[in-house]
Each structure stands twice: as C-alpha cells, then as structure tokens.
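Consider the following assembly input.
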Amino acid sequence: MSDGLFLSATDKKPMYEQIVEQITSKVSLGNWPANMPLPSIRELAAQTQVSVITVKRAYAELELSGVIVTQPGRGSFVSAQPDLQQQLKQQQLTQQLQQLVELARQLQLTDQQLLAQLQQKLESQR
Amino acid sequence: MQQYAFDMRNISIRYPHFAMENLNLSLAKGQVLGLVGVNGAGKSTTIRILMGLVKADAGQVDVLGYQLPAQQVQAKYDIGFASDDMRLYKNQTLQWHMDFIHSIFPNFDHGYAKDLLQRFELIADQKMKGLSHGQRVKACLLLVLARRPKLLVLDEPTTGLDPVARDEVITELADILRDDERSVLFSSHNTHDIEKLSDQIAFLDRGKLLALQDKESFVQSWARFRCQLLPQAQESVLGAVSIRRSGQLAEVITDQCSSDFAVVLHQAGFKVIEQHRMSLEEIFVANVKRNR
C-alpha cells in the first residue's frame, strides 16, 4: 500500500491529528504531488480502521490549513499551491518557535537569556 | 427513502429488577454506533427490542423503514444480528450452516463467505462442537457478514476473543465503512474497540441513556487537568465534573473543555500543571459516577 498511513492507538496524539500530520508530511515530502486525488473518506477509514467521522475531521483540518482542497461531489485533492511545501515548513517553524518560547517561560529565562542561547547556537552551526 | 437506519422512540420496559423508561436512540444511515455500558446496563435489552425479540411496554421502533415488531419479517431480511450467546447446531458443519442461511437469505454471498473462511482461518467441514469459543464467534460473524446486511447489530462481538482474532474481526467490520448504505450498531464493554470504529457513542447505565454524541466532540469536550492549589482556591469550579484533592495538588475533570476552561480554573485558584485527553473508558466511568 503506497498511500498507507501508520496510526497507533497508544500514541498520545488523537487519531485525527495523526492523520493530519502524516498526510501533511507526505505532501511536504512530495510523496503526494499536487492535484493527486486523496482516498475517499470512507476508503481511508476502512483502510486505517478508523471511524468515518474521525477521517472527516482530519480532512476538514487539512483543508483549513490549505494542504488539500475538496471539490463537492468529486472528492479531495492535494492542493496545487505552488509554494505549499515552503508554507508547510514555515508553519512547522512557527510551531516550534512557539514551543521554544513556552519552554523558556517554564525555565523562567529572560528574553535576553533566550536570545543569547539562540545566538550561541546559530554561531556554533555556522 | 428513510434517513435512519433505526429510530427508537420513548421506549419503556419493566422487568422485576430492571426498568428502562423513555429511551430515545436513533442511528443515521451509513454510521456506526457504539453502545457502551456495564453489565446489566440495558445494552442487550435495547438490542433485543430493536431486533423485535422483545416487545417494549411502550414506545415505537422503526428499523430500516419498518415498524417493529409488526413488520419484523420484512425488516430482518436486511438486518444481521450476532451475539456472543448465539447457538449453532453442534452436530452440523459450518458448510451446512452456510447452506442453511443461504436457503433463507437468497443474497448470501458464497464468494465473500469463502474469503471470510480463509481470513478467519475456519474450516467449512468442521462440526460446530469441535470449535473453540473464538472460532464459534467468528463462525457466527461469517454467517451474518456474508449476507451483507444493511444494518448489522452485534452484541459484544469481540468479547472473549484473543487479540489476533479480535483484530481479524475489527478488520472485517472496518471494511463495512466503505459502504455508505450500511450501518452498524455494536455493544461492548471493551471501549477501545468502540472508540476506534464508531461515529456515534451512546452511554447506557441502569436503563438510562446518559449520553449520545458524535465521538469526536465527545473526546474533545472531556479533559483532565492536574493542578496546583493556590491559597485562595475555591471549593468548586464551574464546569468541573469532579475535583479530587490531595495536599497541594488537585485533579479536575471537565466535560466542557475549551481554551477558556484553563482560564476559569486559574481564576478559581487552580494553577494548571498538565492537561490530558481522556480515553473513552475514563469518560464513561466519570459519566456513570456523576449520574449515579
């Protein structure tokens, strides 16, 4: 199965989120090219043994974030936005920056301390 | 064309030690409904009423557009029912049973039955008395699934099965999801199996329907928070289903989880340390406790 997803019930993330993440990474890696038709909601549900409503929710989120487009009556397709892969990576970076800030707050670092650490990291990777 | 696979309205039934009053339960066509409840909650009674095996004292039952129990003969051509206490003829083979079912239900699909024989690792020539519990459950399911019924009603389909057999059964049930004309009702106290395949979840306890909701909103709206109690912490929090305290720490369960709830908690003097999703099983237990 070339378009299979790997879902796990013991993963901390909810099923719909796992579906969203795995389809997003397939698209950002280029495995699922622009305009490729996605499996129908029922087909993917049967394949992955996940309820129809869960796949529906995942597709709705994927559409909201611009990864796929849904044409009523025809099904869903990988979005044809020219810079989609770039955008997805940017989204990922924004997310990780968010996590970075949260962690720094938990450690009660000042903004200067955080910036200094980031600066140091950037220099060491040059 | 009916839009419901079934619709039970204002169902009441009374037994010496069990009463069900004004139960309303329906399932849209093409959906999977999981019925969760402890032993004696009324799952089997609900299913028996739905199947026309028991007549309710009051209320209306509509299945696939037929009134039950009056039109149960017509309705049953399109209903497949399997329960874990179903008996087969022990001196007959599985092949005999398949031919027998075919003689009553002309749409019995022998090709599909053959596939299922292989996937369930059953032997057609084997007599029923030689089968293990797991093999018997799978044999019953085979006889039902091969008819491709419009409504599949399964009472505890995975109870007592080993993990591999359970996986085989779930795989076959998942295959039904491909067809938007077919609906499934299944009961279980294994909430894990229900959580996986169901679109709708119903919680039943002591003859009452505690909740009926689509699974995603269900799982989304319940959450557990581990909090640190601030000195000004209040006794109760709006929207909390339960609060357990232990020293400086508290565990708060809510059925109204949103980003606002963390703010509400904080204002009530509960500093959130962690937020967890809850499994369907935990939600069920919290729900039952609240309502008892």
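Chain A has a mean pLDDT of 87. Ask yourself how this observation constrains the way the partners meet.
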